[in-house]
Amino acid sequence: MSETALPKDEESVLKTPTSTPDPKRPERTGNRNSGLVILALLLGIAGIAVAGWGVWQLRMLQAGHQQQRGQVQNIAEQTLALAQSDQQLTARLAQFPPADQLEDSRRLVTQLQGDQQRLSQRLETVLGASRKDWRLAEAEHLLRLASLRLSALQDINSALALVQGADEILREQDDPGSYAAREQLARSLAALRSIEQPDRTGLFLQLAALRDQAVQLNKLAPEYQDKGESLLGLTSEKSEDNYWTQWWNQISHYFRIDFSADKDIRPVLAGQALAQVRLALSLALEQAQWAALNGEPQVYAKAVTEAKSVLQANFNQDDPQSRVIGERLDALAKQPVAVMTPDLAQSLSAVQAYLERRHASAAEPADATRGVSP
Questions:
Q1: Which CATH number characterizes residue 179's domain?
Q2: Does the pLDDT at position 40 exceed 90?
Q3: Beta bridge partners of 315
Q4: Which of 54, 94, 104, 206 is the most exposed place for a label (fewest CB within 10 A)?
């Protein structure tokens, strides 16, 4: 129906040429052209996209082929390495002995390990016994050393520490046979603890301090001063020509009558005599120092007494310094420099007897084993 209608319109248009043309007709033509251009552009873009996608797919296929080639090459290399390892393992297996020989070797290794373990146990037993013997010998040596310290130096503290060490070694043995030895050691320890160690070093230092003070003593014993006074006014006259005056002036220098002579009067000491007195006092104190260090009570008492007598005979006892030195000498004279040390011979004999019994008991099994072995 539309096709038949169109010619009628066209005829009507041709018949009326003076009629105004339709303004909408040019717009339709322009729209059609722009649509065609857009369609052409879209088709071009689509073609370009299809071409790019094809190129990308081609490159991806090429990369995949290259990766596959690399993997195939790696697999070939790994296969070659495995083949070489297989050859090496085959060569090594060919070098190994057969299974029965391996079983014999395993049996020998097991036997060797058992023998080695038994040998190590025997060695530990022997070493343990030898260590105990060494420790017991050390205890005996400690007792000998303690006895020597007591007899030579009277060193109570050192001897006490040494005896305690020997008793500790016997306690570590945990042997009932050591009861007698430990009992004797306990008696020796009790005797040593009951004795006080003399402070010989302190005495030596105190005497040295007194020597330093003795060198500084200056005030001597009081002396008689002749004032030239007449006796009972016998020469009361002042005349120089008096016979009695001249006679008394001559003899008054040689004797003196004193009715209150309760004080000890001594002559004046010169400078050299003072030095000699100081030297005598210093030597006496030095001798006391030697006696204190060496534990000589008789020499010590004699030296201190001599120092005290020199001090009293030649220096003023009213002087504070002389009085203090005298008091210190009296106090030091009462200090002991030697003690009666206990005898450790019984303790040493008890330990030696224990060692002999231990060695005898250890030798009996060895002799029995030697007798059975033949």
A1: 1.20.120
A2: no
A3: 220
A4: 94
CB contact set of 221 (below 8 Å; sequence gap of 6+): 264, 266, 313, 314, 315, 316
Please give the tally of structural domains in the chain. Answer: 2
Banded pLDDT at 44 (limits 50, 70, 90): confident
Residue 64: inside a domain:
no
Interior CA angle at 169 toward 167 and 170, to 5°? 65
Query: How far is Cα 317 from Cα 323, in angstroms, rounded to an integer?
Result: 6
| Cβ pair 294, 200 in contact under 8 A | no
Segments forming the whole domain that contains residue 307: 198-225+267-338
DSSP for 105-119, please give it: HHHHHHHHHHHHHHH
Convert the pLDDT of each residue in 288-341 to its tens digit. Answer: 999 998 888 899 999 999 999 998 888 887 788 888 999 999 999 988 888 888
* 300 lies in some domain: yes
Does residue 97 fall inside a structural domain? Answer: no
Residues 135-173: tens digit of each pLDDT: 888 999 999 999 998 888 888 999 999 999 999 999 988
- With CA atoms as reference, report the closest residue to 177 among 366, 348, 353, 367: 353
Query: What average pLDDT score do residues 224-250 get?
Result: 57
Q: Clarify whether residues 279 and 318 are in a common domain.
A: yes
CB contact at 8 A, 125 and 113: no
